[in-house]
Amino acid sequence: MKKVCLVLGILGLLLTSMPAFAVNTTQPLTVNLAISARAKLTLGVNAINFPDADPDTSPSVSATENPVSVTAKVRTGASSTATLTHLASGDLTSGGNTIAISNVTWTVTGSGFVPGTMNRTTAQAAGNWTGSGSYSGTFSFSIVNNWSYATGNYTASTTYTLTAP
């Protein structure tokens, strides 16, 4: 019995000391991802309204919706500049009466947003940022209040454009 144990022990040592022959294979995997420029603009409201007020006591009237939240989300190159612009399609009109759209201005909060004056011929800067990101702030609109305005319900269409090159 001792011989059998000795033989089995020696055989066990031989088997455990023998190198294991493993087979390995590798296969490369390439991971691709295409990222395109994107821009998404969100305004807290789609219309602003100015209440009637006495020009002597309120030479400037604020929009009732102030402050209007704005979020500009852009995906662009690390050194590319995303821009937000504003352009009015025309002056404020009521029938045959007009009020120059340049009487409407905005102030801002938030990094990269720019205060400005509405214009019907040239797009006005309203924000700019370098690189990708999500940028939030507010616009607060006001209009010059003047005794010379004819009575009426005035309206104008305007457009904000966010561009990510």
Features:
165 residues, mainly beta, 11 strands, 1 helix, 3-stranded antiparallel sheet, Immunoglobulin-like
Low-pLDDT stretches are none
CATH domain topology: Immunoglobulin-like
Q: How many E-type strands? A: 11
**Which structural class do the helices and strands define?**
mainly beta
Give the number of domains. 1
The CATH architecture can be given as: Sandwich
Span between N and C termini?
86 Å
Helix content: under 10%
- Taking all residues together, what is the mean pLDDT? 92
Order of helices and strands: HEEEEEEEEEEE
What gross morphology would you assign?
Answer: rod-shaped
Separate helix tally: 1
Any idea what the radius of gyration is? 34 Å
- Percent strand equals 35-45%
Largest pleated sheet: 6 strands, antiparallel
Structural commentary:
Helix content is 10%, strand content 39%. The protein is built from one helix and eleven strands. The relative contact order is 0.24. The model has no long low-confidence stretch (mean pLDDT 92). The termini are far apart. The strands form three sheets. Strands 1, 2, 3, 7, 8 and 10 form a six-stranded antiparallel beta sheet that branches. A three-stranded antiparallel beta sheet has the order 9-4-11, with no helix packed on it. The protein has a two-stranded antiparallel ribbon with strand order 5-6. By secondary structure, the protein is mainly beta. The longest helix is centred in the first third of the chain and has 16 residues, at 2-17. The protein has one domain (39-163): Immunoglobulin-like (Sandwich), CATH 2.60.40.
